[in-house]
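Final report, closing paragraph on structural work. Over the funding period we assembled a curated collection of sequence-structure pairs, and we close with a single example.
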Amino acid sequence: MMYRLLVIFLLFPLFCDAQFSKNIDSLFIVKDYLMDISNTVRSKENNETKIDKLGKLIRSAKFQKGIFNRHIAKIGQEDEETDRLIAMFNLSMQSMVLYRSDLLSNFENKAEADYLNEKLAILMYKIYFYCDYAKRLQLEKQKK
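Its predicted structure, as stored:
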């Protein structure tokens, strides 16, 4: 009986670390998704190709939003900043839809593309920052 308790107590920190790493890995998947959007907007391809790629990215936006909301809330320490990041993600998705609709109507809106590139870069940086911060906290907890 004592042996089982000892094994459970020794494995519990490993389980917690694995769960925490899962949050970080999931946020990096979202960061890669945002990078795909940014690369598509910046690309010099014709509008039809951009429209197709953006259509695929828009279809996966709901799934990516769910991942982002779930995992940023687990890593984020401040509720206000987490809310701001979620709002920034939502606005970026809306801007992507508007940019695609502009391309569909043969009206390339430079302001929308600039907005997307700027906000996506900021959001990707913040995701990276939060993941790095969470990893450092995790390492400090392991040392104690």
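The helical segments are 2-42, 47-59, 61-75, 79-104, 110-143. The longest helix spans residues 2-42. We thank the funder for supporting this effort.
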